[in-house]
Amino acid sequence: MWNIRHFLRFGILVATLELPVLAGNVTLAWNPDLNPNVAGYNIYFWVKGGHSTNRVSIGPATCVTISNLVAGATCYFAATTYDAFGLQSPFSSPLVFTMPFPPKLSIVTPAINQQGINGALTASGKASDNAAVSSVFYALNGSPWTAATTTNHWTNWSANLNLTPGTNLIQSYAVDICANHSSTNTVKFVYLVRQPLTVNLNGKGSVNPNYNGALLAVNVNYAISANARSGFAFTNWTDAAGNVLTNRATLRFTMQTNLALTANFVDVQKPALSISTPRANQQTTNAGFTTTGRAADNVSVAAVYYSLNDSAWTLAGTANGWTNWAANLTLAPGFNTLQVFAADNHGNVSSTNAVKMEYLVRQPLTVFITGKGSVSPNYNKSALAINENYAMTAKASSGFAFTNWTDGFGNTLTNRATLKFTMQTNLTLIAKFADISRPTLSLTAPAGKLRVSNTMFTVTGKASDNVAVGTVWYSFNGSVWTAATTGNHWTNWLAAVMLEPGTNTIRVCAVDTSGNISPTNSDMVNLVVPPTALATLGSAAYGDSQYAFLVSGATGYKYLVQASTDLVNWVSLETNTAPFTFVDTNASQFDERFYRTIFNP
Question: How is the chain split into domains, by residue range?
């Protein structure tokens, strides 16, 4: 703020102000309250310091701005005043100009967070400025800015407000004569309009706090939390129209007229169920059986269902709301499986209980054995329970092997020794064993590459088997296999062959009644063709208990000397190359003795 100095210039009483400036604009404001005897004024302006000194008449004003000043200049202001009659007058007091600053404004009513129950409220406040306030504006709840009213030049101002239930917000600012704006002041306050709230519970649970029936302030924010009881779960909050407001347990809401809220809880507890009869693995000889049990729930049981041997689920019966339940069963022979579960009215299902029981119906089993072997345990002619599972194991005797199990129709059941089967009426099982032992065979003649001189030869031998020999076959000199003959079931066998000069080969094998073949036995017979000259005996002599004679024949060939006492049984004595003299040193031991010579190739 500056006081203008008085001086005479051109015969007129003026006041001047010398102001050094930097650059830009200078704004001056005249406050009438500080110049009570001055009705108006004229302002003149000029500049020194290398700038124009022309005086400019700005004219009467309350706020003037000198623009575009240059740094380093000295600005001079001069003013003449006049009174209410327009007459220029001398200064009775210094003429006061101010540098204008933004005005100041405060809201007195309402106070911050003030609460009231009236919808009409008069807002009031104060405004001031170093020059002069020209207007005060206000806005309620974001409405357009509206001018307030004053009776004392805005020292005090007021505005009539129509409030909205709940929190209201008033904003206000002031403008001075130089168009400067004050900061905007803001105050929140509450218009309390209370209405009853309806809170409903759907399902079992509680809310905290329980605002049901409470008078709550409209448009004010509240929170309420839902807590489910044991066996229940909170699902959501809904309004009166069924619209879901939130899935969270805590609902934050703004109170409205006729507001109704519902906390929804759902039953999540499974019902409980037990089977009283039958007991586990209980046995009965009756096809008809009544099963019983109990069921319970935190709310109520809706139904009990049962299934026998995986049949369709069937509704049981009750006479007391499913506290007790029962169902009549028709059992199948053997083990039966009963399954039962309970359901409540909210779709919860109990665990499925299951129990096995046995309906005993016994029938005889027939077991056959083919081949040589045994079964363990041997259930042949045993009365076994229908539809129950059993097992038998087959064991082959020595020389036999287990092949398979078959039923009475010849169908193969398994190739494994242990048969697992389910007993049925008229069931027949057959354990089959196969003979795997090869027969044995031996040659008794020929033996050891025999040399003979006769073309007719009888091959002989023995054969045996753990069951029975079927046939003995021989092949002579690579001919086709031919059956031998026997008179005692192949214990002994023979085959007559016609030898050929030289070496002859005989091959023999035995086959049993199961098709097993013995190893092939073979041997050779060497037929020596005798020379045309036969051996002769001559020059016989007896002396000194010895008998000697000359053996003659084809020179270079061997002859065998044999002796006999009855011309039936002959004993070989000596083989030598003709001609040779044979001496029997034992001749004196016999009453009589006969001799012969045989060509021995």
Answer: 2-98, 104-191, 194-267, 272-359, 362-435, 440-527, 536-599
User: What is the residue whose two structure tokens read 């933004």?
Assistant: 102
Q: What is the pLDDT of residue 49?
A: 46
Q: How confident is the model at residue 152 (pLDDT cuts 50, 70, 90)?
A: very high
* Residue 581 burial (C-beta neighbours within 10 Å; 0-12, 13-18, 19+): exposed
Confidence of residue 380 (pLDDT cuts 50, 70, 90): very high
Rounded to 5 degrees, φ, ψ at 4 are: -85, 135
Q: What is the CATH number assigned to the segment(s) 362-435? A: 2.60.40
Number of H helices, E strands in the chain: 0, 59
Residue type, 570: W
Return the closest-CA partner of residue 547 out of 574, 522, 569, 512: 574
CATH fold of 440-527 reads Immunoglobulin-like (2.60.40)
| DSSP helix/strand/coil, 34 | helix
DSSP secondary structure string for all residues of 423-481: --TT-EEEEEEEE-PPPEEEEEES-SSEEES-SEEEEEEEEE-SS-EEEEEEEETT---
| Dihedral Cα 141, 144, 150, 156, nearest 10 deg | 40
pLDDT value at 528 more than 90: no
**DSSP 8-state assignment for residue 218:** T
Q: pLDDT tens across 319-363, in order?
A: 999 999 999 999 998 889 999 999 999 999 999 999 999 999 999
CATH number of 272-359: 2.60.40.10
DSSP E strand boundaries for 309-344? 314-315, 324-330, 334-344
DSSP 389-429: EEEEEEEEPTTEEEEEEEETTS-EEESSSEEEEE--TT-EE
The closest alpha carbon to 460, from 378, 525, 539, 399, belongs to 525
User: Are the folds of 2-98 and 440-527 the same?
Assistant: yes
| CATH of region 2-98 | 2.60.40
pLDDT digits (tens, 9 = 90+) for 183-196: 999 999 988 889 99
Instruction: Identify the pLDDT of residue 15.
Output: 44
Alpha helices in 284-431 (DSSP H): none
Higher pLDDT, 484 or 72: 484
**104-191 has which CATH code?**
2.60.40.10
Provide the percentage of residues in the chain whose pLDDT is more than 90.
60
